[in-house]
Specification:
The chain is mainly alpha-helical and 66 residues long. The chain is built from three helices and no strands. It has one domain. Helix content is 79%, strand content 0%. 0% of the residues are buried.
Length: 66
């Protein structure tokens, strides 16, 4: 089970990196914002929380630290 999770996590990250390279930055940023807002609707009311979550999310999807 852990091996399957590791594989799917790696594939997810590779897919995100591929999309980042294929899509214009503005389009990619819009997709990221849409997904974060969909997952955390209250985020629009607190800019500091929104920025922190965006940095964490970016780190997770790109393998970079926030």
């Amino acid at each position: 089970m852990i091996a399957a999770l590791a594989v799917t996590t790696r594939l997810d990250r590779e897919a995100n990196v591929g999309l980042q390279r294929a899509l214009p930055r503005r389009c990619w940023a819009g997709l990221v914002v849409d997904e974060v807002v969909a997952d955390h609707p209250k985020i629009l009311h607190d800019g500091k929380v929104a920025l922190r979550k965006a940095k964490v999310w970016r780190g997770i999807t790109t393998g970079r630290s926030a």
